[in-house]
Amino acid sequence: MSDTHAAHDPAAAPTPSGSRIRHAVGRLWRCVPAVAALAGLVGVVCAGGAAGWQVPKSSALWGEERRAADDWCKEHNVPESVCVECDRTLLPRPPRTGWCAEFGVHDCPFCDPAVAQTPAPASFSPADADRARRALAFVPRPPNGKKCKLHERRVQLASAEVVARLGIVIEPVGTAPVVEGVTAPGEVGYDPTRLARLSARLPGVVRRVERQVGDQVKAGDVIALIDAVEVGKAKAEFQQTLALVELRAQALAQKKSLEGATVTGQEVREAEAALEEAQVRRLLAEQSLANLNLPIRADEVKGLSPAERADRLRFLGIHDPLKAELAKETASANLLPVRAPFDGEVVARAANPGQAADPSKPLLVVADTGRVWLTLRVRSEDADRVKAGQHVRFTPDQGTTVGGTVGWISPAADEKTRTVPVRVELPNPDGRLRAGTFGTAFVVLRREPDAVVVPSDAVHWEGCCNVVFVADRGFDRTDGYKVFHVRKVRPGAKDVTPVGTPVTEVIAGVLPGERVAVEGSGLLRSELLRNNLGAG
Question: pLDDT band at 320, cuts 50/70/90?
Answer without folding.
Answer: confident
